[in-house]
Every structure is written in C-alpha cells, then in structure tokens.
Design brief:
The chain is an alpha+beta fold and 728 residues long. Helix content is 32%, strand content 28%. The strands form four sheets. Strands 15, 16, 17, 18, 19, 20, 21, 22, 23, 24, 25 and 26 form a twelve-stranded antiparallel sheet that branches. Strands 1, 2, 3, 8 and 9 form a five-stranded parallel sheet that branches. A hairpin with a 4-residue loop joins strand 18 and strand 19 (583-591). It starts with a strand and ends with a helix.
C-alpha cells in the first residue's frame, strides 16, 4: 500500500492590538467558537492552530472556557499549538532582540497555559527575510510556514513543493513548510470535493506527499458571507466529513507529525518576500495598477503562467515609504526599543522594566504598519493603540528613572535633537512630564507628533489622503463577484454611497505647523479639497533650528528666508515648553514683509484620534458655546480661543490667540478599503487659523498662540475608578 498523502491544516487566528471589543466578540462568535464546535466532533482529524497573543489574552480574559477546551485538545493529541512572536509583529520590522524576546515570551505563555510543546511558529503575514532564520532558531523554534510563492521565487515549481525543506543561516537550521496558494483559494470558497479531487491528483502523482494549508481562521465565519457558507449551509461539516471518508489515502495531521515521519525534500534558501497579494500591495499605487494591467494582458494571451514565477511585486519594508506616517510610528517604536535596551544594558531591571517591555511589544503589532485588502494603517483606532502602548512604555521608563507625570512627582522639561524619524536628518524633541512634541526642521519645521502623556495619546497620529490602486474600482462603482461566496480579494462593495465623489488627495502629510501662504480671497472649500494655490515656498522647505534651554523652560526657534508672491520674506517660528505645563507656546514672526502685497498666512494644525459624528465630541468657543461636532466645517472670524473636546477620551485641545483670528475647520477623510468593502474614514480634524498680514513700518509682523492639551476630564475619571476599585 502506498504512503498516504499528509494534509497539514494550520489555522491562524488574529485580532490586532486596539481593535474594538465588539470586533473580537463577533469574530469569536462567528469563527473561533463554531469552528471548534465542529472540529471537536471529528475525532480522527488532527490540526494545528496559531492564535496571536493579542487575541489569546482577550480569549483568556473573556472566554477562558474556550482556552480550556484548547488545552484539552492539546492533551488529547488532536491539536498542535503553533507559537510565534507574542503580539504579531512583522519580524523584519523589529530589532533581533525583540524578535527573540517576543517569540520566547509567547512560547512560555502557551506552554504554561495550554500545556503545549511549542515547536513551530507562525510567520506574521509570511513576511520573510533569510536572516530571520538565526533569530527564530535562537528563540527555540524548529519550524515555520511560508507560502509556496516564496519557494517559487527561488526557482521551484508547484510539483516540487509537496513536502517541506530545511533552510539555514549562520549555521542555524530551520524547517520550512510551503503553504499551498491553490488550497488557500479552494478552502473554503469551493465545494469540499474540489479540494479532495486536487489532493487525489497530488497523491496519484506523488504518493506520500505533504500538502500544507495555512491561512486565516477568520475565513471560516468572519469574512463577509462566510458564516452562512461555512456553518449555516454546512460547508465545514461537509469538508471534515469528506476528509474523514477518504482516510484510507488521506491523513489529516499536524506539522510536527509530518516532520517526524517524512524526510525533507532538500535545502532551500528563500528570497525575501511575503504572500503574493502582500508583495503587490507594497508597490506604489500607480505601479499596482500597471502590474494588474500587464498581468491581465499576459493572462489573456496565455503567457502569464510561464512568466509568473519570475515576477515579483514590492518589498514589505517600503510600506514605510508608501505611507510615511507608518515610518513615524516605526521610528517611534525603535526609539523606545533602543532606550529600553540601553537601560537594561546599564543594569536596569524589575517590574517597571518588564512592564515597559510588554508595552513595547504591544506597540509592535503589525496591522497598523501596512495596508492591503484590510483597513490596516487607514484605521485610526489601530494607529492610536500603537502609540498608546509606545507612550505607555516610555512613561514607565521615565518612572523607573524617577520621572513621572503624576502630581506628586517633580516636574521636568528637556530639549534634545537626534535623527528621531530615521531619515538621515535631525529632528527636535521637546518633552516634559505632560507633553512630548517632535518637530522636523528639515521638513517645513512641522510638528509631526504631539503626545498627551497622561492619557498616552498622540494627537499627531494622522494620515494623509493619497491615491490608492483600488480607487479606480471606486470610480467604476460597486459590483459583486459570482458564486456562493467570494474571497475578499474579489469583492467590490461600497459601505457608503457616493464614495467616488469623496476622493481627494493631499500633496503633504497632515502634520501641524504647516505654513501656507494663500491668496486673500481663498475659500475654505479650496483649502479643504487641496486645490488652493500655494503662494509661498515654506510648506516642506528646510528651516534652520536653534535650541535654547534653561532649568524650567526650553525653546525651539526655527528660521527660514523664502519667497512669498515672488518677494523675499523671512519667517521665524518658535515653540516653547515649560516644566509642569500642558501648553506649547507658539510664536510667528515675519520680516521683510512687502506692504503692497496682501499676504495671507495660514498655519495648519491636524488633530488625530478625535472622531467626528458624535455629540460628545465638539468645538467650543471662548465663552463655552458649542459650535458643532468635530466633523463640522466652520468658517469663523474674530476668534480668541477655539477648543476641541472629546468627552469620551477626556481631553480638550485648545488654541488661544493673542489677537482675534479667523479660523477654518474641516474633517480630513479618506476613501479606503477594508475586508467589508470601501468606506469613508475620518482621519483628523484640520484647524487652520489665518491672518491677513499687515506689516509695521519696518516690514515686520507677529502673532502668537497657545496650544493647550487639557486631560483633567480623563484624570478625574481615572481617580473615580481608582476610588471605586479601592472601595470594592
């Protein structure tokens, strides 16, 4: 009798750090729980399961009975637990020390809680670089899974991938199982017999082969249309029944069992890459469309299959170029990681250090750092969560050094310069026990991060409107793919009407202290839609910087001589921060201002994490009058103060002017893609004070404002919760 074909089924269940509790709960009810209910009935089947640490922590807190069931299946030998980095980071994105640390930490948790022997790991988003081999082996891992796409880029054909390989780096040897792309598209979208027929073909051609399916568990219930397909119409029962009925030649098993009983096919060195769709998403938008057009053209001519193994898309790390905002987040993460390691190298240890490391690891969760068929970096609540954990980690490191934002601690302030965003140029950091402000003198002197440390919130976690490849699908309009259920890669669904009318693009990042010079008659609509003409050259131009410090007060001065309406104008802006204060003092000073030209100075601010569309998020004037929700367009005159209030977050952000100012406000909204379809997403609130510049006799003009971040609402609420907890 010939050797059976081994089918290795590996499910990957994941919810990112910062996702809404209701999303976790719905995925649990739609996917994780019903899958387990069905699987437990098929006692002859053995599978493997990877659950990310962010999801597993939630499950253990909210549904420990589910985790207990996993433990019993492990003890019964029916379930192999696959490990990995705790909070699902893209491994090439984080330092080697954090790669090893995350993997080891999660292995310990899984072995303690589930009684599992963790031998293999899930490679997050299958993003691979060969040098990872050493880190993975050093973390105690014996094998991992990648897509067959990786191996095809090494020159192997599909028929040569019906098993597993060993790979090596610096003398460390790792086993790698290639997951089948064809199985990914068959399961669960085609009828079970289609999978059986395909596996039968493989078995007849190559007896004893090992075939691997490794993909998202959310395909079984959470992806649109799959709950009805997989459970209500019985697809999963039919699939497991078909596998069981073909047990005479088909063995459904685990990765470890396959590795123990089947020798490797050989050695392979695997090129950098990810799954096929990810490599395409990493390309610039115009290149994605060009790639798709060429793909379809060659496919229509019958030439694509022959050339496809030699074609690759983009490089994952270039998501940090495609979306500069993710680079800022990445650089912030690296700043915290370096500081933590420097402190550990100097002998720091203890509970605060351990807690800071855990917060850093949470801030490395991958989903906010890229974008494809899912919301990713376009989802503000995910970006906010990353910054929340990174700021919390930094707060803990400060606390370890005896510095804190708490009222009973000594206030402090500091001013430093370094290449904080890893662009080869120096940025400036103003920091106190209440605020952190990061400024890029070489990029328009813009303020690109503003942290309210007391609530661990970055008001600068914005996102610009930019072209996406799928916007041409938005312009074509909604459609539905044929068949009972479609992959998310094939669906064109609008979650709101009129999205084609909401497309608009920015030519700069949505930071703050963006120095515009507009025509005197410019309209709010033109400014908001990005069609207003710029008459100055200060927008992203480099400024010179001067740093001034004393014990209780620091100041950054920025200077630039440029052109406005073709005239030479010198602009100076200063940022001042005092210890114990939650206010940035901002001053503008213009010199050589021509008296015969109407200069219209409009410094733009963008505030993130303050959602629109809710009555408890609103504008206030100086008298405390509400001016509408934060998503409202406002064209205001004679303002001495404008506040943005978010009662849910417990924050009030106020701009106060030394002399009355006109102010525009408008929402910054993107049209983006998620697993549910195309949607309009609120990214930030733009607040643009603006003045007609009237110089004095010497051609000078000045204005000053105060940017205050008040979190007393949140702190009072925290205090109440602590009192209630103590009383209970």
């Amino acid at each position: 009798m010939s050797q059976p074909l081994r089918l290795v089924l590996v499910l990957h269940n994941h919810q990112p750090i910062g996702n809404f509790d209701g999303v976790f709960e719905q995925a649990y009810g739609d996917s994780y729980l019903p899958f387990l209910d069905v699987f437990e009935r098929y006692e002859s089947l053995r599978i493997a399961l990877h659950t990310s640490g962010s999801l597993m922590e939630w499950l253990d807190a909210k549904h420990p009975e589910y985790v207990d069931r996993l433990s019993r299946l492990v003890a019964a030998g029916r379930l192999e637990i696959i490990g990995g980095p705790y909070y699902e980071p893209i491994l090439p994105m984080i330092p080697p020390r954090d790669r090893v640390g995350q993997i080891r930490l999660y292995t310990e948790w899984l072995e303690d809680r589930l009684g599992a022997k963790v031998r293999g790991m899930w490679m997050p988003e299958r993003v691979w670089e060969q040098s990872l081999t050493s880190n993975v082996v050093d973390a105690g891992i014996e094998f991992t899974l990648l897509d067959d796409f990786h191996f095809k880029k090494a020159g192997l054909d599909s028929e040569e991938l019906e098993g597993y390989f060993v790979t090596e780096d610096d003398g460390r040897v790792l086993r790698v199982l290639p997951g089948s792309e064809r199985l990914r598209y068959l399961i669960p979208f085609q009828q079970p017999q289609e999978t059986i027929n395909y596996l039968r073909e493989v078995q007849e051609r190559n007896p004893g082969a090992v075939m691997v399916f490794g993909d998202d568990g959310e395909k079984f219930g959470t992806w649109p249309g799959t709950k009805e397909h997989v459970y209500d119409r019985g697809w999963l029962d039919q699939f497991f029944t078909a596998l069981s009925e073909n047990g005479d030649w088909l063995k459904v098993t685990t990765p470890s069992e396959a590795i123990e009983h089947v020798p490797p096919l050989g050695k392979a060195y695997i090129p950098e890459g990810s799954y096929r769709e990810m490599t395409e998403w990493a390309l610039p938008a115009a290149k994605i469309n060009q790639f798709e057009d060429i793909h379809h053209e060659l496919a229509d001519e019958g030439k694509w299959d022959a050339i496809a193994p030699f074609v690759r898309g983009g490089y994952w790390r270039n998501f940090k170029v495609k979306y500069p905002e993710t680079n800022m987040m990445y650089a912030r993460m690296m700043m915290v990681s370096r500081r933590l390691q420097d402190m550990v190298d100097a002998g720091a240890e203890g509970e605060l250090i351990d807690h800071a490391r855990r917060e850093l690891y949470r801030g490395q969760c991958n989903c906010s750092y890229w974008h494809g068929a899912f919301g990713g970096t376009y989802l503000p609540h995910l970006r906010n969560a990353i910054y929340n954990h990174l700021i919390a980690a930094e707060n803990l490191l400060d606390q370890h050094e005896g510095r804190s934002w708490q009222a009973d601690q000594q206030p402090w302030v500091e001013l430093t310069a370094d290449d904080y965003n890893l662009d080869g140029r120096q940025e400036v950091r103003l920091a106190s026990n209440r605020l952190v402000a990061l400024v890029a003198p070489s990029d328009g002197g813009q303020l690109y991060e503003l942290d309210a440390r007391t609530i661990c919130h970055n008001l600068g976690a914005t996102l610009a409107r930019r072209p996406e490849a799928y916007h041409r699908a938005v312009l074509r309009g909604p459609s539905s793919a044929g068949g009972d259920v479609a992959s998310i890669h094939d669906r064109v669904v609008f979650k709101q009407e009129g999205l084609d009318q909401r497309l608009g693009y920015d030519h700069y990042q949505r930071n703050s202290l963006i120095d515009h010079f507009f025509a005197a008659d410019v309209s709010l609509e033109a400014v908001a839609h990005g069609t207003a003409e710029e008459f100055g050259d200060f927008l992203r131009a480099p400024y010179q910087a001067k740093l001034r410090r004393n014990d209780d007060r620091v100041q950054l001065q920025l200077f630039r001589e440029g052109k406005v309406f073709g005239r030479d104008v010198k602009l100076t802006k200063g940022l001042t921060l005092s210890q114990g204060d939650s206010t940035l003092e901002i001053a503008y000073y213009l010199e050589n201002v021509p008296g015969d030209v109407g200069l219209h100075l409009s410094p733009e601010f963008n505030f993130a994490g303050l959602p629109s569309g809710a009555d408890d998020r609103y504008f206030l004037d100086a008298r405390g009058n509400r001016l509408g929700q934060l998503g409202h367009w406002l064209d205001l005159q004679g303002m001495t103060r404008l506040s943005l209030v978010d009662e849910w977050l417990g924050i009030e952000v106020a701009l106060a002017f030394d002399a009355p100012s006109s102010v525009w406000t408008y929402p910054v909204e993107t049209v983006s893609q998620s697993e549910g379809g195309f949607e309009l997403v609120h990214q930030s609130v733009a607040v643009v004070p603006h003045w007609m510049v009237v110089p004095d006799a010497d051609g000078r003009w000045s204005a000053s404002l105060r940017l205050t971040v008040d979190t007393r609402r949140a702190l009072e609420r925290m205090g109440q919760h602590l009192e209630e907890f103590a009383a209970s």
